[in-house]
Design a protein that fits this description.
Number of strands of chain A: 4
Distance between the termini of chain B: 36 Å
Order of helices and strands of chain A: EEEEHH
Largest sheet of chain A: 4 strands, antiparallel
Shape of chain A: globular
Oligomer: heterodimer
Strand order of the largest sheet of chain B: 3-2-1-4-5-7-6
Radius of gyration of chain A: 14 Å
């Protein structure tokens, strides 16, 4: 995911903007005109209004409604990156969180 | 959950476009004839077979495997559904659906969201197989026979598309059609037509009031 997308991304549920962005891993790329840019490889987006988080997994942000989210994948994502994100996300984030493992 | 099937077919999906290039080029020409420009969003972007040649900036799709292919073509992608778009109001100059509205769970919600994220004076373009055409009948037969993908299709007529757009507050301003005959009989791409009678594939452009 490129950084400029943050200008237009909103929570798919309550449409809140701006979202909070926490980057875990990024890489430098060069575009077709030879200009350098950064690609976010792993990170998380967080809606401060409703408390939902949206993983950025292998460069693609996953912003599906609750009923289409994969609980197991979401929990594994939180476990993997727990140390790099605020507690409010892994402990209290919606729709699935690690409060029972705290 | 029709979109899950697209994870199964992502690999090799683009080969259809190569094998049926005259049909694919006819569809591209029809979309281009509607003259959209600026920052675009494609809903149901798939492998970006259309988004890439049309220079569309952003694509959404619920299938992660299709998005991997789109991403490699330089499109910014987000895994999301048309019924709940993750974008700020009025973020795009146009929103495009190509053979995508016939696969969404909720047509009205998807058009409503497209209307929300498009700028005033911008447009929503819906391109799809026309339900009552020769091609629509062919797809209905495939669906009835349990085709892997088309069993999930909800074919729309030109009227269904126009009604959905108008219901969301958009004003239909132009429509073109193409694919007058089976694409195996096509030796070169067809030019888009304003007379939609007999066209298998139709594109409808609707404007958001400024």
């Amino acid at each position: 995911m490129k950084y400029w997308l943050m200008e237009i991304l909103a929570c798919p549920i309550d449409k809140h903007h701006p979202l909070e962005l926490y980057v875990f891993e990024e890489r430098e790329e060069v575009d077709r005109e030879g200009k350098p840019y950064k690609e976010i490889v792993y990170g998380v987006l967080y809606c401060p209004k409703c408390g939902r988080y949206y993983p950025i997994d292998d460069e693609i942000p996953i912003m599906l409604p609750d009923e289409l989210r994969d609980k197991k994948e979401d929990l594994n994502f939180l476990r993997k990156w727990k140390d790099k994100m605020p507690e409010k996300i892994w402990r209290d984030g919606k729709p699935f969180n690690l409060s029972k493992e705290a | 959950m029709s979109w899950r099937v697209f994870d199964e077919v992502a690999e090799g999906y683009d080969s259809w476009y190569r094998e049926n290039w005259a049909a694919y080029e006819s569809e591209l020409k029809a979309i281009k004839a509607l003259g959209v420009s600026g920052r675009g969003l494609e809903v149901g972007v798939g492998t970006a077979a259309f988004a890439a040649p049309l220079g569309i900036a952003v694509g959404v799709d619920p299938s992660s495997k299709m998005l991997r292919v789109a991403k490699q073509k330089g499109i910014e992608v987000v895994r999301a559904v048309g019924e709940a778009l993750p974008f700020v109001h009025e973020s795009f100059d146009y929103v495009l659906f190509v053979a995508a509205l016939s696969f969404v769970e909720d047509v009205d919600a998807s058009i409503g969201e497209a209307h929300r994220v498009v700028k005033s004076g911008g447009c929503v373009v819906v391109c799809d197989i026309e339900k009552r055409s020769w091609l629509g009948r062919e797809y209905a037969r495939k669906a009835a026979n349990g085709h892997l993908i088309y069993r999930f299709i909800n074919l729309l007529s030109l009227n269904d598309i126009s009604v959905a757009l108008e219901k969301a507050g958009l004003r239909v301003c132009r429509a073109v059609g193409t694919l007058m005959k089976p694409w195996r009989e096509l030796s070169s791409p067809e030019d888009p037509r304003d007379d939609l009678e007999g066209c298998g594939f139709v594109c409808v452009k609707a404007v958001k009031a400024g």
